[in-house]
Design a protein that fits this description.
By secondary structure, the protein is mainly α. The protein is about 80% helix and about 0% strand. The chain is built from five helices and no strands.
């Protein structure tokens, strides 16, 4: 067993899935001037999936920290500080759910407006 979880693949995967990929998605969405509902919905689902992967990786790192000899691992992944690490996936999952809600509400609003236009009394 390695002396620290900070040199394990799971730690680097956590950095990629919790920081690099979500920030890249946000950057792409801000860079695009026009974006479809399907793309927004896809990005929202990806954010929620990334949050699930983050929680899984945090659980694995916690188990690995239990077996490691490094005290820093225990301090980060097995103490109250680890609760702060769970805020990152919670925030991204919340943003993803908000984006899905936005797509659904705007679709329903457009469908209602279309219905009203088609069934307007003449």
């Amino acid at each position: 067993m390695n002396k620290s979880v900070f040199i394990e693949f799971d730690f680097f995967a956590l950095i990629i899935f919790s920081m690099i990929l979500p920030v890249s998605l946000y950057g792409y969405m801000m860079w695009k001037r026009v974006i479809s509902r399907h793309t927004v919905l896809l990005f929202a689902v990806i954010l929620i999936m990334l949050s699930g992967v983050d929680v899984f990786l945090l659980q694995r790192l916690k188990a690995m920290a239990r077996l490691s000899t490094s005290l820093l691992d225990d301090t980060i992944f097995r103490s109250e500080i680890s609760l702060a690490l769970y805020l990152i996936p919670a925030v991204f999952a919340g943003i993803g759910m908000n984006m899905i809600s936005h797509v659904l509400v705007s679709h329903v609003t457009d469908a209602e407006n279309k219905f009203d236009r088609e069934h307007r009394p003449r």
